Amino acid sequence: MKRTIEEAAAQLGQTVSEFAVSTLARSARQVIQEERVTKLTLRDWELFTAMLDDTSARPNRALVAAAKRYKKRNG
């Protein structure tokens, strides 16, 4: 494994330390991005937007309670 890492670093013109840091940083950004983004299928997206557009929908007790907690904590 060490030789593989050294070879990859050399191919990029980096030291092993530079390669390690840049690779870890890239991986960290990817993990953060994947955790922030919710991916939906086209069908799920259409269902989601239809629910948002439904003017007859009313919040249930759990949603009302969550909204109150949010307002209490965040003003």
How does this structure look, described?
This protein is an all-alpha fold and 75 residues long. The protein has one domain (2-74). 76% of the residues lie in helices and 0% in strands. The protein has helices at residues 2-11, 16-36, 42-53, 61-74. Helix 1 (2-11) crosses helix 2. The N and C termini lie far apart (53 Å).
Tell me the major beta sheet.
Answer: none
Total domain units = 1
In terms of DSSP E residues, the strand content is under 5%
Give the SSE order as H and E letters. HHHH
| N/C terminus separation | 53 Å
Identify the overall geometry. elongated
Radius of gyration: 23 Å
Measured as a percent range, the helix fraction is over 70%
Poorly predicted sequence stretches spanning 5 or more consecutive residues: none
Average pLDDT metric: 96
This entry's quaternary arrangement is: single chain
The chain-level structural class is mainly alpha
**Quick one: how many beta strands?**
0
Task: Give a brief outline of the structure.
The chain is mainly alpha-helical.
